[in-house]
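debug: dumping io for the single-chain case to check the tokenizer round-trip. Nothing else runs in this session.
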Amino acid sequence: MTTTHKIFSNRWLLAVLLLALPLGLQQVGNAWVRIADMSLLYVLLALGLNIVVGYAGLLDLGYVAFFAVGAYLYALLASPHLTEVFPWIAMMFPEGLHLSFWWVLPLAAGLAGLFGVLLGAPTLKLRGDYLAIVTLGFGEIIRVFLNNLDNPVNITNGPRGLGQIDAVSLFGYSLSKRLDLGFIELPSVTLYYYLFLSLVVLSVVICHRLEYSRIGRAWMAIREDEIAAKAMGLNTRNLKLMAFGMGALFGGVSGAMFASFQSFVSPESFSLMESVMIVAMVVLGGLGHLPGVILGAVLLAALPEVLRFVAGPLQEMTDGRLDAAIMRQLLIALAMVTIMLWKPRGLWPTPEHGKNLNPQGGVR
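debug: decoded output
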């Protein structure tokens, strides 16, 4: 069998496994399908952050802000909150403001992308630790705003969050309902799994094309040596802004999907710890390498839930002296430290610089 045939056969096998995964998990319990759903959402987030950190080399610790922007925009446009607060909106939309998924998703992506450019503009001359501190502050500012924009005009409902968010409807069918195919029933979490999987596949294709495009190579040149890249005639200013905007766009889409899936959003879901976890997914998986980023996101998203089954027995062994949640966090931290000691460049790192830049071989 030729190398090409092997690649295609492996891809088909992977596709079949991914399509069959929720069908097997739902036999054990819908909770496991929900874990798979959240893992795919984190894969989307990690792919977006990989553009900023992995390709362009810009350390962003406030990435969760774009996640929050997308989530809250979807929540405001697909819930009764605005019609309850503003009578003039209720007069314009007597049945409630429930915009279609096809309208809200591009709006969430566009607004998050705009916020990404706004973040990138004042930080163009910052690098390394200084850039990380500024982006961290940006993420916290967005969370604080969301937490306090309930006074004097109640826009975000403050720490109470927004509920009654519409589920995604595709071609008139709401994903909050079970789908009976006759020979099998697909619950809501399984339908969302296939939607998230489709978005992940599309995102991987976009990121792969970006990586081997002129823009992607320019980002990597900036990552390796910004001064040399500027000396070669690259417009580093615009390229950095493009990286921030493109990465934020993925965050906005992920946020919109999160809001529709959870049917509730609050500022607590967008803490600094979330940003740190997303950065850890990219770094532990392998900076700038799509398979590694996906692997890191799946492991770190699913590991806390899997460790619930380990932390419980350990708590019983200590007669309840150790809290299960703290034990779970300790095990996650130990796993992360072990991985970084064992694989300093990530679980599935990118090939060495200068090697295999052309997937077909040869030099471009």
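debug: round-trip ok. The beta strands are 169-170, 173-174, 179-180, 185-186.
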